[in-house]
Amino acid sequence: MQKKSSVEIVTEWDIVAARQLGRNKAKEIGFGTVDQARITTAISELARNIYLYARFGNIHIEWIEEGDKKGIKIIAKDKGPGIEDVRKVLEDGYSTSGGLGAGLPGVKRLMDSMEIQSEINKGTTITITKWLR
Amino acid sequence: MEDLEREYHKILADYVKEQSERTLYIGQNFVRQLIRRNISPEDVVSLHKDAVETIYPAQFDELRLAYDFLIEMMVHYGMAMREHQSLLQKQAEIQMEMNIAANVQKTMLKTPIPSDMTIDIGMLSKPLKNVNGDYVHFIDDKKYISVAVTDVVGKGVPAALCMSMVKFGLESMEEYAHDPEHVLGVLNRIVERNVDDSMFISMFYGCYLREWGLFYYASAGHEPAFLYRAEENKFYDLEAKGMLLGIVPTTKYKRSEVLLEDGDIIVIVTDGVTEFRRDDTVDERQVVASLIHDVKGLPAQSICEYLYSELEEMQEFELKDDFSVVVIKKV
């Protein structure tokens, strides 16, 4: 079983590939149906952001372990325009999709943690993790 | 979660067995509990799926995929629900801050109402929202009483912020409080320098010389005050030309004056008092004048309160702007 794998996001269908990869991995790790759906939705949102705002990038998915805890870590990386104000995009109702629950705050709530690194005109890296309970 | 699973399973099994209204009511209470514990829709579907599997083990294989599909769909619903909850919480925080701000403002804008044997003064200022864009400021000197009635065009927080600036401007000029043209001229420059172009402030500034019974005033684009002449039983407008504060830094303001006789009443208002029309046939100022006339014999403060309650009722208790009125009555 491979611990790491990744998908390049170039076309809209690559979002589907990223979802598939994420779901398979989540299932392997032992997440239940509901958490599988949450993890996949989170990946889908991140991949969609790359596709819409950065044009291309990649989604990297890995199985993580810490002591006897198991979990999944997803890294979404792009070389797009970057995020000007990270604090703002983490505010509810800020993203243009406002009120639909999507956007980064929504993704953050589906997972256990989220980390954003972004530099204007250089790109953005978002790392999300979720532990198996 | 496990206790919920057990409970849900029992309620569903009971319902399948006897379809009683009682079970449905228990179910409703159960949902209340789920909402209180922030259980998201996808978890509820999953609860249901597991319960159905236990109750109908034989048929379940055909249904499993349909439930999984619904869970998948409900994840997005759950995201929207959690965003909604977080926005509600944020709103509650803002509301709390607003209440604190309103209290801070109330303390800051408090002004004692002067009075003596020859003059009876009343004042009422009610904000439309919780913070006020109107401001009334009195200065009580041995020789004179001065009064400033200010209206920041606009309501709510931006107006209230501007208001504090006007208050500090007025307070820093107390030695010129008997000089309306000077006070308006300085405030005009302060406002012009410090306030955004989209913000307008009007002010009526009057000064009453106790010894002479003389009232003189100047106005920066403010609604004319009412003057009731007791002897003639007639109303006049106390008008003074002058531009709104903060538009042209070199604006000069001009003074006008009236000698007050016993029983005369001056009523200074903001436009929240006179702008209540619902159709073009009503002359609002006439309505206000006739209300004043109805109660001209009452103490100044009672006149203010009467105007407020009557005008509020006329607008079906939905005022459209901050509401301020000052009544000065020569006795």
UniProtKB/TrEMBL annotation, chain A:
Arranged from A to Z, the UniProt key words for this protein are: Kinase, Transferase
Q: Which SUPFAM superfamilies match?
A: ATPase domain of HSP90 chaperone/DNA topoisomerase II/histidine kinase
Say yes or no: keyword Kinase present: yes
Q: Name one Pfam family in it.
A: HATPase_c
Q: Which GO terms describe its molecular function?
A: kinase activity
The record, for InterPro entries, names:
HATPase_C_sf, HATPase_dom
Where the record annotates domain Histidine kinase/HSP90-like ATPase, the positions are 34-133
| CDD domains given in the database record | HATPase_RsbT-like
Q: What is this protein called?
A: Serine/threonine-protein kinase RsbT
Give the gene that encodes this protein. rsbT
From TrEMBL, chain B:
Q: Which Gene3D superfamilies match?
A: KaiA/RbsU domain, PPM-type phosphatase domain
Q: Domain PPM-type phosphatase, which positions?
A: 120-330
| Range of residues in the leader sequence | none
Any one Gene Ontology molecular-function term assigned to this protein's record: phosphatase activity
The answer to whether keyword Hydrolase applies is yes
- Enumerate the UniProt keywords alphabetically: Hydrolase
Q: Which domain of life is it from?
A: Bacteria
The family database entries (SUPFAM superfamilies) matched by this protein are listed as:
KaiA/RbsU domain, PP2C-like
Q: PROSITE patterns, from UniProt?
A: PPM_2 (PS51746)
UniProt keyword annotation of Kinase present: no
Supply the name of the protein: Phosphoserine phosphatase RsbU
Name the source organism.
Lysinibacillus alkalisoli
Q: Which gene encodes it?
A: rsbU
